[in-house]
Design goal:
By secondary structure, the protein is mainly alpha-helical. The chain is built from 8 helices and 2 strands; from the N terminus they run αββααααααα. The radius of gyration is 21 Å and the shape is globular. The termini are far apart.
Amino acid sequence: MKEGDSTEKLVESLVEELNCETVFTIPVFGGIAVDEGVVVTWIIMAVLTILSIVFVRNLSVEKPGKVQLMLESVIGWAQDFFEGIIEKENRGYIPYLMTVALYLAISNVIGLLGFKPPTKDMNVTIALAVMSMFVIEWSGIHRNGLVHWCKHFAKPVPIVAPIMILEIVIRPLSLCMRLFGNMLGGFVVMELIKQVVPLIVPIPFSFYFDIFDGLLQAYVFVFLTALFMTEEME
């Protein structure tokens, strides 16, 4: 009974942590529920906006400061990385990719500060995947035109057209499930470790699942998005 009770309590705690509770309701259109994932996303957006204003208010060409040099180095590295995937002539998409990467990196590790990571909510990962789907398809239309985009579904032979059309949904779905699944899996493993050995032992695992894996998933998401864009623009 004791073992069963502990298992039941563990399941209840996991379900409680994974459920995104409604924080407040906006009284329009019959009431729009705003859950924890949305609120934490707003907090991340506000912090990034404030930091952006603070870091760029004293930019200088003649005497750049250490912070400016560091930011220029990071942004320059990111631009070179994405240009290597989508080519220089498509650099207009890089700000979107960098923004998503930054948001995901912070969202995946914000649990260390006591917030519930938005990426534990499938609604958030689905929204990101749908956004990427539109960017991927638009990149192909913008680069080669609408007619070419329609024709490429029938290549190399027309019989593959249904599969190629289905791929429009499969690619963002894979992005969504990969991100959500990895974040969910890491969370469940950490909770199990904390229940079994609550002291000392979870610390190194936390470095992997809460930091390394979170940053890795942000990288994988934007890398695959850029790769799909390259395929679409060929």
